[in-house]
Amino acid sequence: MVRWEPGAAERLQKAALELFATRGFEQTTTMEIAESVGLTERTFFRHFSDKREVLFHGQQLLADAFLAGVDSAPAEASPLELVAAALQSSASFFPDERRAHSRTRQSVIDQNPALRERERHKLASIATTLADALRRRGVDEVAATLAAESGATVFSIAFTQWIREDEQRSLAGIAAEVLRELLTLTATAAERIPR
Amino acid sequence: MVRWEPGAAERLQKAALELFATRGFEQTTTMEIAESVGLTERTFFRHFSDKREVLFHGQQLLADAFLAGVDSAPAEASPLELVAAALQSSASFFPDERRAHSRTRQSVIDQNPALRERERHKLASIATTLADALRRRGVDEVAATLAAESGATVFSIAFTQWIREDEQRSLAGIAAEVLRELLTLTATAAERIPR
């Protein structure tokens, strides 16, 4: 009979991140992660398919947060207003109390080329999911891709700033500023690039 | 003594693409590629490190074409004008007579998840290279990333359209239209997203 482990996934995740950060991702085994919180490797594999998934299992929730933002936007919202709503909603996934965790996670990822590739892939999937959501809202093919990719770029830049040492602003605030910078950049160009 | 093989790289590339397209990438060996044009496998490996490199060896030349565009832009060009120049320059890398080749190459890549990942990685590298070039032109960190990523997205959308069946427009023309669409999208948003 499988015993129910209260909060096992959270305990495993916290322990794994600490081990990855101190010993290195490659050097840490699933057995060590499990044992460090008094659980078995079998329990680990009930929650995560491998140690990499400890770092990426929130991906679907993050994608859902983007989509919830699109859903909450008014019917007349333009494509980039939908993206702005998605960015604000995604930021709720990263409250300030999660900043330290996100910083540690990123430092682990930065040290490992395969994890960096996986993180890039995660962002690309979120952009694709967001573009699909825009299309379902009636945005045409090209505009949906342009707006969604812009949203993913803004998210990525804002997130990098949010986890900087000593950064105090919220992710929502930073994302709004970066999006505004994109609008300013393109407004300047719109006047000067010939039709 | 190594015999000089006139145009061996080009012949190998053409043969490889045909084999990949008809038999499948996984099913084609470097030996078969070499033998199909009367060359040895050793000759193949003098030109390409593996069969995947046949599909990607133009990457540096493409990146160089983007950079040449940035270099050719006037000193007062705004970040997105630099990107517009880079896009126009990159299009010169894909004259219309290369369209059939590009179509076949893309169909091979689309059928293989690892090749799709490699192609995504290639585009990401080009965006990074372009952002670095913008920084060297004095564009600040965030603006350089936003502009370069926008450029990579525009390129990717334009390229997908350019290789569509029956498409007649040049890549330069399509890229200019897609960039214009991005400017229109953001102009609409700039009026409506609160500061």
UniProtKB/TrEMBL annotation, chains A, B:
PROSITE patterns for the chain: HTH_TETR_1, HTH_TETR_2
KW Transcription (keyword) present: yes
HTH tetR-type domain residues: 6-66
UniProt keyword annotations, A-Z: DNA-binding, Transcription, Transcription regulation
Pfam families in the record: TetR_C_14 (PF17754), TetR_N (PF00440)
Protein's UniProt keywords contain Membrane: no
Origin superkingdom: Bacteria
GO MF terms held by the record: DNA-binding transcription factor activity; transcription cis-regulatory region binding
InterPro entries: DNA-bd_HTH_TetR-type_CS (IPR023772), Homeodomain-like_sf (IPR009057), HTH-type_TetR-like_transc_reg (IPR050109), HTH_TetR (IPR001647), MftR_C (IPR041347)
DNA-binding region: 29-48
Ranges in coiled-coil conformation: none
Name used for this protein in its record: TetR family transcriptional regulator
Organism: Amycolatopsis balhimycina DSM 5908
Organism placement in taxonomy: Bacteria, Bacillati, Actinomycetota, Actinomycetes, Pseudonocardiales
